[in-house]
Design a protein that fits this description.
Layout lengths: L8 H4 L2 E4 L10 E5 L12 H10 L9 E5 L8 H11 L5 E4 L2 H14 L10 E5 L8 H11 L5 E6 L2 E7 L3
Parallel strand pairs: 1-5, 2-3, 3-4, 5-6
Antiparallel strand pairs: 6-7
Helix pairs in contact: 4-5
């Protein structure tokens, strides 16, 4: 046996890496701002708004992620947001109330619901910390909460350089 043999200790460690980006829905993110449908920029008129809802092309939101908001200080009844959601829901992948930042966090939250924690039973898990997308802290907390009951350990970072987060007591 040669002393020049390189041993991949990371590969031998049995670590399982979870990259939250792998679960992220990549559909376009759209901000639907009610301000464009206000009378004199301050109030929503039900009759006009319902006419808009009936005529609008909702298919343009197919498979998109949509945040509904009103970016101006206006009187918007709750039912208006509900009507928008009812029109968007058949087409959009995800509809939320809030900003694009809220939408981004919700997309990650939804993705985490699709992770089967039992797939990681007694595993040593590394939750990847760097990537192309900005992953909100809330997603890391949510994933940690989901995995804690089943994994033997959780680390954060990259398999070659991790920060220990949790280790199951034996």
């Amino acid at each position: 046996m040669s002393t020049d043999t390189i041993i991949n200790k990371v590969q031998q460690s049995g670590l399982i890496t979870i990259d939250l980006e792998d679960y992220f829905h990549a559909g376009e993110k759209v901000l639907f701002d009610i301000k464009h449908y206000l009378y004199e920029g301050i109030i929503l008129k039900e009759k006009d708004f319902r006419a808009f809802l009936k005529e609008h092309n909702w298919e343009q939101y197919k498979d998109k992620n949509v945040a509904i908001t009103c970016s101006v200080d206006a009187i918007i009844p709750t039912w208006a947001y509900m009507l928008l959601a009812s029109k968007l829901q058949p087409y959009a992948h995800l509809v939320v109330f809030g900003t694009l930042k809220d939408l981004h966090a919700k997309i990650f939250s939804e993705a985490i619901t699709h992770i089967n924690a039992t797939d990681f039973a007694q595993a040593k898990v590394v939750i990847k910390g760097c990537g192309k997308l900005e992953v909100p802290v809330s997603a890391y907390v949510e994933l940690t909460n989901k995995l804690l009951p089943v994994v033997s350990s959780i680390m954060y970072g990259e398999p070659c350089s991790t920060v220990p987060v949790y280790k199951q007591l034996k």
